[in-house]
Amino acid sequence: MRSNELDFRGWASGHRSSLRSTAFLISGDWHLAEDLAQDTLARMFAVWDRVAASGNPDAYARRVLVNLYLDHRRRPWRREESRDVLPDVRADPDHGTSDGTREVLIAALRAVPRGQRTALVLRFWDDLSVEQTAAAMSTTVGNVKSQTSRGLAALREELDRRGIHELLFATEETP
Amino acid sequence: MTDQQVRRLFDVMVAGAPPDALDLDRAVAAGRRRRRGRAASIVGSTGVVLLAVFAVVATAQHGNHSSGATTVEAASKVRDSALQLRPVLAVDPGSVAACASLGAAVASPASPTRGCSTDGSMLYTLGPAVVSGAQIKSVAASAGSGGSAEIDVALDSQGTTALATFTQALAADGSPMAICVNGVVASAPTVMEPITTGQVVISGDYTLDTAKKLVDELTRP
Predict the structure, then answer these.
(1) CA-based nearest distance A84→chain B, Å
(2) Measured between beta carbons, which residues in chain A are less than 8 angstroms from residue B46?
(3) 3-state secondary structure labels for all residues of B142-210
């Protein structure tokens, strides 16, 4: 096995789980998240020598992931071919919250517009800076800031609409 | 809503993850195929685009190349029709019949056209060429770095400006750019960053010989 492959496998083992979670939060669908993360890993290996030499494979991986998701949105027929199961939000009912809270949360996040949702996930799940998020989304810092703040407002509204916001945060927001 | 609260919400959402079915062996195998074949783009922070592209598209007769040389091949002029960069207006699944019906004629750079991917699996509807052979100052095979050869493409000032404007628009909405070699869409990578330097590096799993063959194909009068 060549050393660059070992190197890649080491990196991928450490990042597969976070990539998959990011893909899930952006897409709202575990099946799609799996496909997107798998495809991202393949693309990362294809360019591994250069990306590893650049010193920042994590950032590049997120950019690839976001682009793949946007590509997927643009070309739905590609995904239909490889999907044999319909999207199932409740991927693991055994470990779900007993009252369905998780499903409602996921539905609320999915209702946030795509760009805003992506900004929220990169900023607060991946802990990227505004600048890193802008790079991953191929957009400007100003746009990321506005998408983030609008996304927070939209998420809050979606949670309120589902009557879940008060329930979750009532205890914390009163001193 | 605070950042911290959003983080906690995300934690709750991903806690229901199904078992991880990612397959590293498959990723490595697929990645290796991408290296060899037509593939995606990687854009360096310097604005130089590296297009991991076309397995040798060249089918024409090739001259004698001495193998083992590591020097840069003399730069030469590209035919106007041989290499064109076009916007992708639509992508459809291709078919043998649809691709055959396109014929062998290469559209002039100014007209919109349709083109198939090298394996015929995709049929692209393409806008007029933004950059074509006429705006390419030189193209040359070079030994590259890390063991695989590359093809360096330098655009003239008109081509540089055109490509910068074009890729700025594409990068903003994550659109692909079609790279047409003799009328075939050799690759349609997603453009991730504007390319402002007018320097394009085509890299794939080339040896110096196969890189030279592609240069020959592009410059054949």
Answers:
(1) 15
(2) none
(3) ECCCCCCEEEEEEECHHHHHHHHHHHHHHHHHCCEEEEEECCEEEECCECCCCCCCCEEEEEEEECHHH
